[in-house]
Amino acid sequence: MLTVSNQKGGVGKTTTSVNLAAALSMHGQRVLVVDLDPQGNASTALATDHRAGTPSVYQVLVDDLPLSSIVKPVPDMPGLFCAPATLDLAGAEIELVPMVGRETRLKRALAAFESMEFDYIFIDCPPSLGLLTVNAMAAAQEVLIPIQCEYYALEGLSQLLQNVELVRVHLNQTLALSTILLTMYDGRTRLASQVADEVRSHFGDTVLDSVIPRSVRLSEAPSYGQSVMTYDPGSSGAMAYMEAAREIAYRAAALAGAS
Ligand code: ADP
Ligand code: MG
Predict the structure, then answer these.
(1) Model confidence over 188-236: pLDDT tens digits?
(2) I need a surface site. Which of 11, 14, 84, 220 has the fewest CB within 10 A?
(3) 40: Cβ below 6 Å to ligand 1?
(4) Is any atom of ligand 1 closer than 6 Å to the C-beta of 9?
(5) pTM of the full structure
(6) Which residue's CA is minimally distant from atom 6 of ligand 1?
(7) Domains in the chain, start-ordered, CATH in brackets?
(8) Positive or negative: CA dihedral 153, 156, 161, 167
């Protein structure tokens, strides 16, 4: 279970969650995407209904609705499932505050949801470090941080890492920052390669070898309710996410072998 987190908006969290999940499902894995952003972008990209009134992650967190009752199969993508987010979820950030176990409500919902064994669960976080992101970090084993290869990319990162550490100490000892993925890489600029080098020198092996290039296909796919994997499988973006998914799968296999 990976939480895809970065409190910056527009760094590729949703694009990464959706396309890694799609890539892994196309290799025969059962994969769930939990949309934890009130904007519902992951739900849109996975063609999963998230109009107002649709039972969503909101009811799971706030009203204790079982997760199994909101998870939907993604159309035309065998093995891929989505737990949609509706706009109500914006209110959850505040409504959760007085609740018992407010930081671990997603963890509890996921733990009670073992009927549909998944190989991978991706949690697509909102662009903040509020209670929703804390719920994601309390539930997951791994944190995946997408970093946009732009100026300012590293700003705010220490705050994010501090939060990971706080959650690890207080809520979830098994949490690890396992994966960093460089996104929106523009090979024509020196800045992009400088940012990439800096991230690699800081984070070493945590950074995947695969780098996601800027690709207009990646930004077009969601408007067709598709991942880029089906929208344009031969595009540079699709191939890069396929490669990143392969790396993640190999790492998981290596970990399983080691334990
Ligand atoms: P976040 O979830 O972190 O806010 P998104 O995944 O929604 O970020 O990406 C922000 C915007 O950038 C979206 O419009 C998305 O389609 C676009 N985008 C994401 N990754 C790429 C990429 N590698 N190349 C081009 N556009 C991208
Ligand atoms: Mg997003």
Answers:
(1) 999 999 999 999 999 999 999 999 999 999 999 999 999 999 999 999 9
(2) 220
(3) no
(4) yes
(5) 0.97
(6) 12
(7) 2-258 (3.40.50.300)
(8) negative
